[in-house]
Design brief:
Helices cover about 45% and strands about 15% of the residues. It contains eleven helices and twelve strands.
């Protein structure tokens, strides 16, 4: 005879709710307790009822995403799809909030804050209204989820250095945006490791767009700035940079090596790039928001990134 959830809980000496939360990956409990429950479940051959399991997954929560600045670029489109999938699987209502937060009479149970520019004002407003917030980006003294921008940039720059490059330029954006600041810091740290300090002419403003990357690289080269490699803080800028180099009669990677950041699919080049785990970032962000709704602590989550070597990097033609 098939064992029931009540019998399983009775055999373990635990409440039915505790056993149910362990099976659904919810709630706070010791790892020892969770492991014991799952082991007993497997030993008894217990299989959860699919309908009941689906109902238990429906949190009833609503989570909004505050979009301070518009624009659905390739990266954000992928991230948006990942958020929609995660919230759909959990039965959580997902709300786009493109208007200023103070214009909403009623707010969701928690809000994800996209874009760290002017984030303090939004955090203060949500705190006054008692709504938990998760920042999508590195932000001290708050709950946040972010890819490991600094170490990813450092790894990208170190990869170019290991190939023999020393004249390495950075293509980012001139703003207080966290992703640029952290990636720029990683680039500078890696350059400092080989005894090269900040060189303003080697830090270009590509605006995090294909066109911006194209214009920044072409302008710098035409003004006489000479580099053997580029670390671009986004794949989009890397694509623009390669286009500029090709139009200037230069070959990638024979004349100039190029590294991007994001790991976007469908790029026109087999980029060497720093790959983000977009799906994991979405899962971590929604999980953290739901934990805050349930009274959990603020957490700072840094998601690892991976350097993927492609066809756009090679040793320089001439030794430094």
């Amino acid at each position: 005879m098939k064992i029931t959830l009540d019998q399983l809980a009775l055999n373990l000496g635990l409440s039915k709710g505790t056993v149910s939360r362990a099976m659904n990956g919810k709630g706070r409990m010791s790892e020892e307790t969770r492991t014991r429950i799952l082991a007993a479940m497997q030993e008894a051959g217990y299989t959860p009822d699919p309908t009941a399991q689906e109902l238990s997954r429906r949190s009833g929560h609503s989570i909004g995403i505050s979009l301070q600045q518009g624009g659905f670029g390739p990266y954000f489109t992928l991230f948006w799809r990942a958020l929609v999938q995660v919230t759909s699987e959990r039965g959580t209502r997902f709300i786009e909030m493109s208007e200023p937060l103070d214009s909403y009479a009623r707010l969701p149970h928690a809000v994800l804050l996209h874009n760290t520019i002017e984030v303090q004002e939004r955090l203060a407003l949500l705190a006054r209204r008692g709504v938990p917030a998760v920042v999508l980006g590195h932000q001290p003294d708050t709950a946040f989820v972010v890819p490991d921008d600094a170490n990813g940039a450092r790894a990208a720059t170190a990869h170019l250095q290991a190939l023999g490059h020393r004249a390495i330029a950075y293509v980012g954006m001139a703003s207080s945006q966290q992703s640029d600041q952290d990636r720029r810091a990683g680039y500078r740290d890696a350059m400092a490791d080989i005894g090269i300090g900040v060189r303003e002419q080697f830090e270009l403003d590509g605006g995090f767009t294909v066109l911006g990357g194209y214009r920044a690289v072409r302008r710098a080269w035409e003004e006489g700035v000479r580099f053997s490699a580029l670390f671009c803080a986004s794949d989009e800028m890397a694509v623009g940079a390669i286009g500029a180099l090709e139009d200037l009669g230069l070959k990638v990677p024979d004349d100039v090596s190029v590294v991007g950041f994001d790991g976007l699919p469908g790029m026109p080049y087999a980029l060497t790039t720093v790959v983000q785990d977009i799906g994991r970032i979405a899962v971590e962000a929604i999980s953290l928001a739901e934990a805050l709704i349930d009274g959990g602590p603020k957490r700072e989550i840094i998601v690892p990134v991976t350097l993927r070597v492609g066809a756009t990097t090679a040793p320089p033609r001439h030794a430094p």
